[in-house]
Every structure is written in C-alpha cells, then in structure tokens.
Amino acid sequence: MLINIKQFCIRYAVSRSTVYREIEAGRLKTLKIGRSTRISEEEAQQWLASLTTNDDVNIKS
Known about the structure:
- The chain is α+β, with helices and mostly antiparallel strands.
- Helix content is 44%, strand content 18%.
- A hairpin with a 2-residue loop joins strand 2 and strand 3.
- The chain is globular and about 40 Å long.
C-alpha cells in the first residue's frame, strides 16, 4: 500500500518539513506517480525502525 505525504505526517506525527528533510537526506525513499509523491508502507516502517531512541544512545556522564 502507498500513502501520501499528508497521510505519512499524520500517521507518524511529523511535519511536512521533517518528511522532506528525511527525503532529501536519503533516509526516506519515495515514489512519484504523476505529480503525487507516495511512500510505501514498507519504506515507512523501515524509516521508523531506523530512528534512534533515547534507549539506544549510550550517554557518558
């Protein structure tokens, strides 16, 4: 299934600017269908899994 940018923003609680930064950085891959930009569900899940959480960061004090 493919979702558009607006749907991605709502589902993952991120701004349009953030989505386009992730695309520009190559961390989120898209498909163009005519003038519409789409993101596959699989790609969205891979992007989400790649994010670093506070639990993943080893902070030295």
